[in-house]
Design a protein that fits this description.
Blueprint lengths: L15 H10 L6 H7 L15 H18 L1 E6 L4 H6 L3 E3 L1 H10 L4 E5 L2 H10 L4 E3 L15 H10 L5 E4 L4 H6 L2 E3 L4 H12 L3 E5 L2 H8 L5 E4 L12 H10 L4 E4 L5 H6 L2 E3 L1 H11 L3 E5 L2 H10 L4 E3 L13 H10 L8 H15 L9 E2 L9 E2 L4
Parallel strand pairs: 1-2, 1-3, 3-4, 5-6, 5-7, 7-8, 8-14, 9-10, 9-11, 11-12
Antiparallel strand pairs: 10-13
The structure holds iron/sulfur cluster.
Length: 382
């Protein structure tokens, strides 16, 4: 069950006392010079950070932005970052597919991944010549932790005739064992393409059982999956959707496809974080709820001031490991660098390249809502 439910910014953004101590500990202060450099940034986060808090945060922001220029670094900020990171220091923002494409294309010596560890690995896989840093080694992911490369090798032994698709929310060793990757923007497209290429009526899609079940409802391909789940999205339920509709008549409910199938069945629209953001941008609903991680609503709300957001708050503890303080530290100390064995990297890149070679769509693909869930086979780990 999601923690409920009402308007107003989701999670408190930074902790100002901690930020103040953090700035002071690094010899940073809110001087007239810092004030002049950051005054134009404050309106971007004024819904989340009070004027009293700003002097504690502005010196960290200014120093991060100065170091980026000095070191030719860029920050890739995932949609689930808090608004201080997303709006004030992120150079590129988006879902994991968008950030992976930016990592491959960007001209910079250093990439700081404001996201979780598998995202930083994906950047390193696609941009091996760049130094990729992750601000916190504790920024993991319940999906990535649910499966290993050894698990995939066993799956391939058990089902040698079927292609294996991995969601990008996995470690490099898992990607290296799979035939192709997918994201929540293109999962159904990837499943159908690989089934055609292999001339197979069955595809194995790991590790997210809910994404797999939601894809299964959209396609005639038989799907086999793995019992992984996102600890954030699995908490949403169809009961939440019903409660939201009762409490907020007319609200438009958008869901991420890592949610259980009954949530997508009850929602009005479903898709990746980019698809959800595009929906709000294109349709300007009067009142909307995003059934996904808390900060996503804050970030989309900041870009759509005319839309009322109802905000159920399920927070990803891993994403919240990334803070302005540890972004600054990783730039100062050049820690924690992501390193991947070259043979593994090349194999993992082949799986990502297979996905990137598919026709690019103008917009992220949506999942059809209202469909009855389909039962599918879930593999029991050995
Ligand atoms: S929101 Fe879910 S899938 Fe995304 S990083 Fe957190 S645990 Fe992983």
């Amino acid at each position: 069950m999601a923690r409920l439910i009402d308007s107003g910014p989701g999670c408190p953004t930074p902790t100002p006392i901690r930020a103040k101590n953090a700035a002071e500990a690094r010899g940073l202060a809110y001087t007239d010079e810092i004030k002049a450099k950051t005054d134009d940034l404050y309106p971007l986060v004024s819904d989340f950070i009070t004027p009293m808090e700003w002097p504690a945060i502005a010196p960290l922001v200014a120093e991060i932005n100065r170091l980026k220029v000095e070191k030719n670094a860029v920050i890739l900020a995932h949609n689930y970052m808090t608004p201080d990171i997303f709006r004030l220091v992120g150079d590129f923002r988006g879902d994991s597919l968008q950030l992976a494409r930016e990592a491959a294309a960007v001209e910079a010596d250093i990439i700081v991944q404001a996201g979780v560890h598998f995202m930083a690995e994906t950047s390193k896989i696609l941009a091996p010549e760049k130094t990729v840093l992750i601000p916190s080694l504790e920024a993991g992911c319940s999906l990535a932790a649910s499966i290993t490369g050894a698990d995939v090798r066993l799956i391939k032994q058990r089902y040698p005739d079927y292609p294996v698709v991995t969601y990008v929310n996995t470690t490099a060793d898992v990607k290296a064992e799979c035939h192709i990757t997918c994201t929540s923007s293109n999962a159904a497209q990837v499943v159908e393409a690989i089934a055609k290429e292999w001339n197979s009526d069955t595809v194995i899609l790991v590790p997210d059982q809910y994404l797999a079940k939601n894809v299964a409802a959209q396609t005639d391909i038989r799907i086999i999956t793995w019992p992984g789940a996102c600890e954030v999205h699995e908490l949403f339920s169809a009961d939440d959707v019903n409660q939201l509709r009762e409490a907020h008549p007319g609200v438009v409910i958008l869901a991420h496809p890592e949610c259980p199938p009954d949530v997508l069945q009850a929602a009005d629209f479903a898709g990746s974080t980019s698809a959800l953001a595009s929906y709000v941008q294109d349709n300007s609903p009067n009142k909307v709820v995003l059934l996904t991680e808390c900060s996503m609503s804050d970030n989309v709300a900041a870009e759509n001031p005319g839309v009322n957001f109802v905000r159920p708050c399920n927070l990803c503890p891993h994403m919240k490991r990334i803070t302005l303080e540890n972004i600054l530290d990783c730039l100062i100390e050049m820690k924690h660098e992501v390193v991947i064995d070259e043979e593994m990297r090349v194999k993992a890149k082949a799986a990502i390249d297979a996905m990137l070679a598919l026709p690019k769509t103008d917009k992220p693909l949506a999942f059809e809502t209202g469909l009855a869930p389909r039962e599918i086979e879930v593999i029991s780990p050995a």
